[in-house]
Design a protein that fits this description.
By secondary structure, this protein is of the alpha/beta class. 33% of the residues lie in helices and 21% in strands. The chain has one domain: P-loop containing nucleotide triphosphate hydrolases (Rossmann fold), CATH 3.40.50.300. It has a seven-stranded mixed sheet with strand order 1-3-4-2-5-6-7, with helices on both faces. It is globular. The structure holds guanosine-5'-diphosphate (GDP) and magnesium ion. Magnesium ion (MG) binds next to helix 1.
Amino acid sequence: MTHDLVSEFITSAGNPDLFPGDGLPEIAFLGRSNVGKSSLINTLVGRKGLAFTSSTPGRTQTVNFYRIEEAFYFVDLPGYGYARVPPQHRLPWKKLIEGYLEKRGNLRLCCLILDARRGWMPQDLDLKRWLEYHGRQYLVVTTKTDKLNRSEQERGLRAVRLEGVEPQPFSAVTGRGVREIWQVISKTLQR
Ligand SMILES: Nc1nc2c(ncn2[C@@H]2O[C@H](COP(=O)(O)OP(=O)(O)O)[C@@H](O)[C@H]2O)c(=O)[nH]1
Ligand SMILES: [Mg+2]
């Protein structure tokens, strides 16, 4: 299912002063570096090159804002868990991402993205607890499901459910899950 939405890159912000100030609602995409955040955004809007995807993990240290239908933003947050990022670069990253998640008034929904093959990693669980503590609404998306066979997928889903959430399976290759994720986003935006 393609959506052919009007989508435009607005800004890549390295600090909160540069975040858009128009107050439109925001949907944030979070997850480990290379998990498939940008690919999810591109698949949802039906535009391959909108969000920058890369096979070199750990590159994006900025918050990227994409305006959709002139009505809301998709926010591509910098990925975590990239071991080769030196410690002195992790602190500003943490400040930026936590500052955004904690203070952003127009943030409506966080899509927490997991690799279907790996399930929860320690930093994903940290983030989940952090989101719950701060009362943030979130949707867990398991991506790259095209890389698993049926029984591997079932096993993966069961493992993710152990943390008390029902994940939405997704694949940027097959488009699986696009409709369901849009349903959640639309419902969130209607409130
Ligand atoms: N097979 C497969 N590969 C994917 C999928 N989503 C992302 N990828 C690949 O995973 C790599 C990282 O994706 P990207 O969207 O840049 O991840 P990000 O760092 O989280 O934004 C790229 O090589 C993508 O082509 C998916 O659903 N299936
Ligand atoms: Mg990316």
